[in-house]
Write a structure and sequence with these properties.
Helix 5 runs parallel beside helix 6, helix 5 crosses helix 9 and helix 6 runs parallel beside helix 7. 28% of the residues lie in helices and 19% in strands.
């Protein structure tokens, strides 16, 4: 019926999970015969038929090593007891492979029936945890998606997480959930909610997203969920929320900017996502990654491309001047080989081996592997609070130019990580836009224009300085808001800026 209709996109499922019906929005075994068979094949393809090797890799003393993980293994515990974290890591990767193959199959049917249509998977921030990950199913769809609902401190980091180099991305459900105070009244004023939406829209473009889809136009008062029944621009009485002005602001900017925007140049910095550490249920596994994204954007006007440690290849690193590998703890031989192809690679924290406690030659050749030790509460001017001494390792190897033994992206203080990045970025020849204003800055370079995105998470108006065509330019950014700016690349002439 809709064959050849290009303006229809297909979203295969809303916020996918790999789970039985009773366990939606989580990642857990289904425990049926289909899963048992698929898991058996996946394990044999990964590890071969040697059960002794498999037991050693998983540290599995059970009578049935080929069974899927038990329920008590799905959640973190400070004691290993009878848990097998390395097996769980494999299982989470298996579930992501299953989700990707499912999407790939349906996309094939849709394109066979409907022609050259666009297909996606509308995932929320669960894709940055154990649920089907945008990083791992991107090759099966036409563009990746994010529903940025809850992780409002880290909207930019989430957007960077879901954007892979080869595919576009979209902020697909961009809105504000209801929060209430102790008496059930709005936690945010309408104006506060509008400013948060403005920052979400801007962070999407800072993360290289193709755009935003606001959720939703009209409030649905019949929705039987309190936190969702108030989402939308227009109230049931027909009046508009201040959030509507956010779309008007951005639309006015892009109406002028659109003819100038072509494909942007690749980012000079790649930040490796420690997804294997996450899948092994290590506490705060992505906190350092998120902190690194924010500090790079605020202090250097630089937003990196993010690539999972499970998807590193020489081809994907070919444009990088600097690759940052933040406290991965575990990394594969394949990833190590890819990193050896990059001109500059900066490691922080400890690398203890591959996922299975082994030290393949390719990994050993990097010269960064040791057993490490737990961080102390205070080390060399850095404070590792939040109980990180119970879960975070530092390297015991000597400090070198390209290996910082301390996991500084986790430190309470920003200064040690910022100083490290200043040295590394300069040594790698990466242009930066230094500032201590606390305002996120992102410059995207198109053939004819420079697109600037500025986001102010602070409570006061601020000015952010960047360099355009060799000249300093000050951009004023309102408190709790954003500013979009477009300059002509050849001359530095201001073309348009958002209000």
């Amino acid at each position: 019926r809709y064959r050849g209709v290009g303006w229809i996109h297909y979203d295969l499922i809303n916020e996918p999970s790999y789970a039985p019906p009773a366990g939606l929005w989580s990642n857990r075994p289904i425990r049926d015969e289909h899963e048992k068979s698929a898991w058996f094949i996946w394990v044999r393809n990964r590890h071969g038929r040697d059960l002794t090797l498999l037991r050693n890799r998983w540290q599995d003393r059970s009578e049935a090593p080929l069974e899927v993980p038990r329920e008590n293994e799905l959640w973190y515990s400070p004691l290993r007891e009878d848990r097998r974290p390395r097996k769980l890591r494999d299982f989470v990767e298996f579930t992501n492979d299953v989700a990707a193959q499912w999407a790939r199959t349906l996309r094939g049917y849709l394109r066979e029936a409907g022609g050259d249509v666009l297909v996606t998977l509308g995932q929320d921030e669960g894709g940055t945890q154990h649920r089907p990950s945008q990083q791992l199913h991107a090759e099966a769809i036409d563009y990746t998606c994010l529903h940025p609902w809850w992780q409002n401190d880290d909207v930019l980091a989430s957007g960077v997480f879901i954007k892979v180099p080869e595919k576009p991305s979209m902020f697909q459900e961009t809105g504000i959930m209801r929060l209430e105070d102790v008496d059930g009244f709005h936690w945010r004023t309408p104006e506060h909610a509008a400013s948060m939406l403005d920052r979400k829209f801007a962070n999407a473009f800072a993360a290289r997203a193709a755009g935003n889809i606001q959720w939703a136009w009209n409030i649905n008062p019949y929705m039987p969920i309190d936190n969702e029944s108030v989402i939308g621009f227009f109230r049931p009485d027909g009046t508009a929320k201040p959030e509507l002005d956010v779309v008007m602001k951005h639309a006015a900017f892009f109406r002028v900017a659109a003819p100038w925007l072509d494909d942007f140049e690749p980012d000079p910095v790649v930040l490796v996502i420690p997804q294997s550490r996450l899948f092994m249920n290590r506490p705060a596994a992505l906190d350092g990654y998120r902190r690194a994204v924010r500090l790079l954007a605020e202090n250097f006007g630089l937003v990196p491309t993010a690539i999972s440690d499970l998807r590193l290849t020489p081809q994907r690193l070919r444009n990088a001047k600097l690759v940052i590998v933040p406290s991965v703890e575990f990394i594969s031989a394949e990833a190590a080989e890819a990193l050896r192809s990059a001109p500059r690679v900066l490691f922080t924290g400890a690398v203890t081996g591959n996922y299975y406690g082994e030290l393949p030659p390719a990994l050993d050749a990097l010269g960064v592997v040791d057993r490490g030790r737990p961080v102390q509460f205070r080390e060399e001017g850095a404070t590792f609070d939040r109980n990180l001494q119970e879960s975070l390792l530092r390297s015991t190897l000597p400090r070198t130019e390209w290996h910082e033994p301390l996991p500084l992206e986790y430190a309470r203080e920003s200064a040690p990580f910022v100083a490290l990045m200043e040295r590394a970025l300069a040594a790698a020849g990466v242009e930066t836009h230094p500032s201590d204003s606390g305002v996120v800055a992102r410059l995207l370079y198109a053939p004819r224009a420079i697109f600037g995105v500025f986001v102010n998470d602070g409570a006061s108006d601020a000015v952010r300085r960047v360099t355009i065509n060799g000249a300093p330019v000050d951009v004023s950014v309102p408190a709790g808001g954003s500013r979009l700016v477009l300059w002509e690349r050849a001359t530095g002439r201001l073309i348009v800026q958002s209000r």
